[in-house]
Specification:
By secondary structure, the chain is α/β, with parallel strands linked by helices. The chain contains 13 helices and 14 strands. The strands form two sheets. Strands 1, 2, 3, 4, 5, 6, 12, 13 and 14 form a nine-stranded mixed beta sheet that branches. Strands 7, 8, 9, 10 and 11 form a five-stranded antiparallel beta sheet that branches. The structure holds (2S)-amino(hydroxy)ethanoic acid and manganese (II) ion (MN) (2 copies).
Length: 427
């Protein structure tokens, strides 16, 4: 099993150690952990609302810190709240192999998006302890702050500040719809986490591997339990604003109505029509629209709405953005601002091969796959050799309370993750 980034065949773990570690992955312990974490921000419909830096998010973190310490890990945090749970290897000076994901969710999220990768990473720590398998490098499980970006855009705030600390100041000042900032939320809980030592952003690491649900229909359709992710498509987020004049719904004649919502809906319908006709891989989503003053009998004076644009190629994203900008310009006074840009990002070939080798050694079928969703790994890919392990999503559904993956598949993905981490920790 090759594990080093120099393409040399290096001393990796013995097949016996890999199998011992995979056997130590406990499906039921993993299932319990996923359900225990889902209790923080649980919704009545079985989903989860654990948005970034909310009380539920922080309570979930505290629960995971105490759990990881119980597995013999030390906990650290950085200035944007990323959490690291570290178990030492035989060489304390070696760069760590890091695995993990995000614990924040969508407001109408499921139990698995992000949480699965966090729980799988902690299960790897538990399996390392239980199996006694040796590893040279330290292994760390990480919880990245605010991956979803729905409360505080942009997405992957914690991972991108970790890999580019210059972004931190801007992120700390970001406010949610109620005007509460990232900095206010983080400083409100400093005392609660004073037992967790700090570490600087941007620590070097040997490799990063993230387990995640696919959130799409491909693995289920082909009946394969593991996806070896080749890379992530590009994503761009925009805020569009239109303005008008608030006036009486009944007494304002047609010619005197300056209606912000009429302009916004004209932009939206032009965008949907043009993108429906375009490249099938181009994805446009208008997920949020705010209308002010929002009264049934007042002509809207301001509308703001989000646009989420995705495609595997930068050139297509560029041309789609300029089309969108010209549609917005067709409505007088309308403005558009780009609030996030994640470029299409390929993953490290050696990490992909290490994941594929791990699955093969364990006799687990695996296929290469591309990610339609963005992930924290997109940012880590520029910081260290990075890869992802996908497991199937039932019906391809995610960002929905009915998100579901069989526990067997979750455990299978965790076994491949554990074997991959072991290979990288012994390269
Ligand atoms: O939006 C995404 O792709 C991710 O699930 N946050
Ligand atoms: Mn996610
Ligand atoms: Mn998500």
């Amino acid at each position: 099993m090759t594990a080093s980034s120099t393409n040399q065949t290096t001393r990796g773990p013995s097949s016996e150690d890999v199998r011992a570690l995979a056997t130590a992955v406990d499906e039921h312990r993993l299932g319990r952990l996923i359900n225990d974490l889902a209790a923080f921000g649980a919704r009545d419909d079985g989903g989860v609302n654990r948005q970034a830096l909310t009380k539920d998010d922080f309570r979930g973190r505290r629960f995971l810190i105490d759990l990881a310490r119980g597995y013999g890990a030390t906990a650290h945090q950085d200035t944007i709240g990323n959490l690291f749970f570290r178990v030492e290897g035989s060489d304390p000076h070696a760069l760590p192999v890091v695995t993990g994901s995000h614990a924040d969710s969508q407001p109408t999220g499921g139990k698995l998006d992000g949480a699965y990768g966090v729980c799988a990473a902690i299960e790897v720590l538990a399996a390392l302890r239980d199996s006694g398998v040796s590893h040279r490098r330290p292994v760390e499980a990480v919880i990245w702050t605010n991956e979803e970006g729905c409360r505080f855009p942009p997405g992957s705030m914690g991972a991108s500040a970790f890999t580019d600390p210059g972004l931190l100041a801007g992120f700390l000042g970001t406010a949610d719809k109620d005007g509460i900032t990232v900095e206010e939320e983080l400083s409100a809980v400093v005392a609660d986490f004073s037992d967790v030592p700090s570490r600087p952003l941007g620590a070097p690491l040997a490799a990063f591997v993230e387990a995640h649900i696919e959130q799409g229909p491909i693995l289920e359709a082909v009946g394969i339990p593991v996806g070896v992710v080749r890379g992530i498509q590009g994503t761009r987020w925009f805020e569009v604003e239109t303005t008008g004049v608030a006036a009486h719904a009944g007494s304002t004649p047609k010619g005197a109505r300056d209606d912000a919502l009429r302009k916004a809906t004209a932009i939206a319908s032009d965008a949907y029509r043009l993108f429906a006709a375009g490249d099938d891989n181009l994805r446009l989503t208008i997920g949020r629209m705010n209308v002010a003053p929002g009264s049934i009998n007042v002509i809207p004076e301001r509308v703001s709405f989000s646009v989420d644009l995705r495609h595997p190629e930068t050139a297509t994203l560029e041309s789609a953005e300029s089309t969108l900008r010209s549609i917005v310009a067709s409505q007088d006074g309308a403005t558009i601002a780009r609030v996030m840009e994640m470029p299409p990002t390929p993953f490290d070939e050696v990490i992909q091969r290490t994941i594929a080798d791990a699955a093969r050694l364990l006799g687990i079928p695996a296929v290469p796959i591309d990610s339609g969703a963005f992930h924290d790994s997109l940012h880590l890919a520029g910081h260290a050799p990075t890869g992802m392990v996908f497991v199937p999503s039932r019906g391809g559904l995610s960002h929905n309370p009915n998100e579901y993956t069989d526990l067997t598949d979750l455990a299978t993905g965790t076994r491949v993750l554990a074997a991959t981490v072991l290979a990288l920790a012994n390269d």
